[in-house]
Amino acid sequence: MAQGQTAPHATPRTAPAMRHGAARRAVVAGLSVLALGTTALLPARAATAVRPTADPAVVTGWNATAVDVINKDAERPSGEPFVWQGFVSAAVYNAVVGIEGRYAPYKWDERGPAGASSEAAAAAAAHRVLLEYFPGSKARVDAALRTSLGKVRDGRAEDEGVAFGRRAADRVIALRENDGRGADVPYDRRPAPGVWRPTPPDHAPFLNPWAARMRPMLMESPDRFRPGPPPALDSERYTRDFEEVKAYGAKHGSRRDARQTETARFFSDNLTVQFQWSLRDYAERHGLDIVDSARLFAAANTVGADVYVMATDSKLHYALWRPVTAVRLADTDGNPATVPDQDWQPMLDTPPYPEYMSGHNVLDGAVTAVLTGLTGGEIDLRMSSAVTGTTRHYETAAEFNREVTDARVWQGLHFRTSDAVGNRQGSLLGTWALSRYFLPLA
């Protein structure tokens, strides 16, 4: 069971499979067998090559810098930060494995000079991507680059690493040209029973509908994992979902107990910041080297970018109304078992986009599937919340996903079916991604 409050600096438990080479190789070898027929793998570097040990802190450090740039400087809304994190993490990964080897690069086949510094390459790659998309943060990212390169010995290895890292970044930037970001994608569904419309208190329009048509980083198309339709308004399942969120997700007069309210508050924090902290915490506690650290962030964040696409695709396609609208207009839904309450308010303000699927739960399912695949079973995930000032620990993906599914109902933001379906589809995406990308070199 998840622990309600775990001290942020508690003694770490024994590392799971990612830290133990033999077990990890067995897991990733199984994944590569699944994909050998469809994925072209590059030849590995000679086993006799000797390289100085690179500091993995450059990967976690640049992830923290990216969080500051994306979430503080730019104040990007909703799930969009995962798009930018995906770009940064893919470039860093290509820069590192292009020099160090071990795993297949992301949509690239270039190798760096054998003697180049992978630390310098990682820093240069992250710097270039962030500067490309956030030029207003130049002072911050330039300072971070100086700090990173100050830890690398001056000379040819550093120079070649920087040059290769910039090429890795340029490759990702080129891949993302004309990918549909910011395109004019209208939401033109007319209000009707079950159909989404702007919600109180701000009644803001659909946020970033273009994400439903953006070219994914991993999937072939935005609808690759689109689920079947939500329950009909007159179905027993819809009625159960309706009654549960009405009773437990209300701002006033809710049936939530203190623990349920605490869980709802815990998961009301900025999800991107929470997950990036958790990934850094995992990499540091388990002593991942620079290659496995880069792979962890690349896998989790490119999957996260695709989550934003697939969740928005489903929301735009099905356009299901939110609980706050459903409860207030229940007398129009054709279901005699649902009773309206025109004064009902959710615990948290409803974000401006449709209900189905829950984007939060799609992301949770996808990232925990990646962690499960990379570790061999136990995710050993710690997550902190600035809202509650606490840290929780989860051994398995099932524990974590169960709590988040509950939390989104208790917040009054989603019907349970939207959470459960989102979590399932996200898990499918994460598992699928690891069978095709970031594979060990043959």
Characterization of the model:
- Mean pLDDT is 89; it is low at 1-50.
- Strand 1 and strand 2 (390-394) form a beta hairpin.
- The chain has helices at 21-35, 57-73, 81-100, 118-133, 138-149, 156-175, 236-248, 258-266, 271-285, 290-318, 323-328, 359-375, 397-410, 416-434, and strands at residues 381-385, 390-394.
- The relative contact order is 0.17.
- With 442 residues, the protein is mainly α.
- The chain is 50% helix and 2% strand.
- The protein has a two-stranded antiparallel ribbon with strand order 1-2.
* Biggest beta sheet summary: 2 strands, antiparallel
Average pLDDT rating? 89
Beta-strand fraction estimate: under 5%
Q: Structural class, please?
A: mainly alpha
The helicity comes to 40-55%
* SSE sequence, one letter per element: HHHHHHHHHHHHEEHH
- Strands side by side in the biggest sheet: 1-2
Number of strands: 2
Give the radius of gyration. 22 Å
Tell me which oligomeric state these chains represent. single chain
The total count of helices amounts to 14
Unreliable residue runs:
1-50
What characteristic shape results from the CA principal axes?
elongated
Features:
single chain, 442 residues, mainly alpha, two-stranded antiparallel sheet, 14 helices, 2 strands, elongated, disordered N terminus
